Amino acid sequence: MTQVQSGHQVNLEGVLMEMRKSVQKDFFQGGYQSVCNRIHPATLSRLSALETTCTITQNGRHVLSQTLVAAVDADKAYVLSYAGQAEAYKASQDEIETARNALKL
């Protein structure tokens, strides 16, 4: 969570694009490849948000998934990032959704 100055317009898509670039660069430096889906509408708790998920591979094998979510509410901006090994990430989707919806923002 970050305070937003009164009257400041947060560019959520720009924030997510920068976060995504950073994630991809970090994984690349570690010898991984990553492909992220388009930034699309989502929710974070009760807020409208934007989201993107990156698939991280090594030698063509899917090893990790990472999701980035950003939302704004009045004077606060929120970002959430979570990741997991490919199979565990997929198997945990219901649990992740429940946790995201239960956040008190």
Describe the structure.
- It is built from three helices and six strands.
- With 105 residues, it is an alpha+beta fold.
- The protein has a single domain (2-100), classed as Mog1/PsbP, alpha/beta/alpha sandwich (Protein Transport Mog1p, Chain A, 3-Layer(aba) Sandwich), CATH 3.40.1000.
- Strands 1, 2, 3, 4, 5 and 6 form a six-stranded antiparallel beta sheet that branches.
Using brief descriptors, characterize the structure shown.
single chain; 105 residues; alpha+beta; Protein Transport Mog1p, Chain A; 6-stranded antiparallel β-sheet
Helical content (DSSP H or I, runs of 4+): 25-40%
Radius of gyration: 15 Å
| Number of self-contained structural domains | 1
CATH-derived architecture: 3-Layer(aba) Sandwich
What is the number of strand segments? 6
Distance between the termini: 9 Å
CATH T-level topology? Protein Transport Mog1p, Chain A
Strand portion, in percent? 35-45%
**Which regions have little confidence, pLDDT < 50, spanning 5+ residues?**
none
Instruction: Give the class-level CATH name.
Output: Alpha Beta
Taking all residues together, what is the mean pLDDT? Answer: 94
What is the 3D shape?
globular
What series of H and E elements makes up the topology?
Answer: EHEEEEEHH
What is the helix tally?
A: 3
Largest sheet: 6 strands, antiparallel
CATH level 4 superfamily:
Mog1/PsbP, alpha/beta/alpha sandwich
Structural class: alpha+beta
